[in-house]
Amino acid sequence: MTAVLEAEVRKARKVADAVAQARDLTIRELHEPIEHRDAERLLGRVWRTGPASPPVSGDLMRALSHAGAYVAGAFLDGELVGVTAAFLANRPGSSAELHSHITGVVSEVRGRQVGWALKLHQRAWSLERGIESIAWTFDPLVRRNAYFNLTKLGAHVVSYLVDFYGEMADGVNAGQGSDRLLVRWPLRAPDVIAAAAGHHIETPAAESAAILQTDGDGRPRRLAMPDGPTIRCAVPADIEGMRLDDPALAQVWRIEVRAAFEEVLASGARVAGVTKDGWYVFTRERKNR
């Protein structure tokens, strides 16, 4: 490890520890079977599954931990309130990176930034092992996650994955498809280092044309593909509540957002970020005529 990387590792660990301590959290790896069972129960609670079908079993987390993968928990006053699990990815033609498979935080501590503390711990853990990027997927319809991942963390969208997991039976995703955005977090990039220190860059709410917007009744309205270099795409303010109150409308949003993303990305645009009020912003270079 070079002196520069050693310094970056020390700084990453210091930042992660400071964020956890400021929120009275303890973040640590989970190594014992009893801890993995507790983690299984927490994830089942977050995803509203029965005890027979947790999103990740304690047995699997035990195996991942024993094999040297990343399984960690966040504790508040000694109680487990968040769990994350990740494993090494080795894609052809790419350097090794960590794939962060799942992160769950109980709703009672929402607002304490437990997810933020877990992600910074994961970043420091990865850098300590010479891993310089982390990838994961998230549902593009969940606005708060989009803002967290793309703005607060500084992750970059790699691709839009249609029905990535196939049909899911948990209490969050059942009947809604499993489209995901794949993102990559380059841990040593200047904007990521700044974001980790709390200095993230907001995506400007540019005066750009929309390909998808929200009607007055909360339904998506598709528009013609804009011709300019910047394009906006709306998502609902609270898709999780909508899935409970109006699952048919939530499914319409899934279909329309999927179509908008596919058309815009096929035009050569890339996702530049998410605005604070929930618009995805795409940018593309103008072609010389």
In short:
This protein is an alpha+beta fold. The chain folds into two domains: about 5-195, Gcn5-related N-acetyltransferase (GNAT) (Aminopeptidase, 3-Layer(aba) Sandwich), CATH 3.40.630.30; about 210-285, no CATH class. It has helices at about 5-20, 35-45, 60-65, 115-130, 145-150, 190-195, 240-245, 245-265, and strands at about 25-30, 70-75, 80-90, 95-105, 135-140, 155-160, 180-185, 210-215, 220, 230-235, 270-275, 280-285.
Q: Can you walk through the features of this model?
A:
Residues 25-173 form the N-acetyltransferase domain. It comes from Kribbella pittospori. This is GNAT family N-acetyltransferase. GO terms for molecular function: acyltransferase activity, transferring groups other than amino-acyl groups. Keywords: Transferase. The protein has 289 residues and is of the alpha+beta class. The chain folds into 2 domains: 3-197, 3-Layer(aba) Sandwich (Aminopeptidase), CATH 3.40.630.30; 209-284, no CATH class. It contains 8 helices and 12 strands. It has helices at residues 3-22, 33-46, 58-66, 114-128, 143-152, 190-196, 239-245, 247-266; strands spanning 25-29, 70-76, 79-89, 97-105, 133-138, 156-161, 180-186, 209-214, 220-222, 230-234, 270-274, 279-283. The strands form 2 sheets. Strands 1-2-3-4-5-7-6 form a 7-stranded mixed sheet, with helices on both faces. Helix 1 runs antiparallel to helix 4. The termini are far apart.
